Amino acid sequence: MTASLGQYETRFWEPNLGAPGRKHRRGGEYRAFIPAPIAQRGFELSDEAVSAASQATKGLVKLSQASLATGAVAPLAKSLVRSEAVASSRIEGLQLSQQRLARAAYQRGGRSSDPRAADILANVDALEQAVELGTNARPITVADIEDIHRTLLRFTFDRGVAGVVRQRQNWIGGSDYHPLGAAYVPPPPEHVGVLLEDLCAFIERDDLAPVVQAAIAHAQFETIHPFADGNGRVGRALVHTIFRRRGETPEYVPPVSLVLASQPRAYIAGLVDYREARVSDWCTLFASATAQASDNAVELSEAIETLQLRWIDTLGSPRRDAVVRQIVAALPSQPVIDVGAGQQLTGKSHVAVGNALRQLEEAGILQRLNEKKWGRLWECGELLELVSDFEERVSTPPE
Q1: What is the CA radius of gyration of the chain?
Q2: pLDDT digits over 37-53, tens only?
């Protein structure tokens, strides 16, 4: 059994006489939780947790070895990142269709006019940044985590606190004006910096199974809750930093958040388990979600490839270097496309890409979104529907 992973400290909240309503003006004692350092801590796990972690590792290996006849590794990887970011945002109450997100991504130019889409696209960027951080050999720092948070919130109403470790007490649940009666009160701000440094040191360890390390790092981050907003999304992004850093996911991101979104109560209960030193229970839940996410990612990759192979057959099996075939391979990363985007993806001429897009439209693979003679825009509705149906199926809570 793991010893206590922290302690509660009693604090006093001064009454807020300017708050609206008597219940929000209350003052009094509350208990904040201060997690124990984990950088050098030992963790004894149950046989069930060890077995679950082993199964999750096998799933990640299977995913990393997935091969595609179309050779479209990068586009599929982008699609999986998008699904993970969408699901991570959904856990925080931000929902958006794949179609709306894809159109916003095309229109973005660095920023979308759709506020909700901008939030989720920023989460895609933050997740990609976290994955890229995992490829870096240097030690991960608190500044790196702040940068991920800054990317996440840079287009939101909370951009004033983007990348800023909190200097005030925060809490989860209860009143917006005081922590009395909150579901959870994280450590007071004077503890946060030291705890984040300790977490970064923990991420450098290589004596734990990667899945276990990711589970513990994520739960510890959520327990610290170092930012005013965006903690859940940053914490889930760090999972993929660790997976990539430990060599578990060299190409693809397993949509772990998609699975966790299907069991929100179990997910929250698992984080409570961690805080109350039931680390094995939390690691078992996280590992099981990772194993399922890996299987889901393989399933989605196979479904996308089946769709692409059907399109290639419909097009008369063009040569591998044909522009139209290159665009088919790239569609998972760019389901809303114009000639300019097609040129960036293929490196081919304006005329060649334009002809290929019209060929795809005539085959029913792309649908035109406007009637402009210049600046025409197309969408791959069948692909967007496939990914949306997959996400809906996986994220639906089990009965």
Answers
A1: 23
A2: 999 999 999 999 999 99
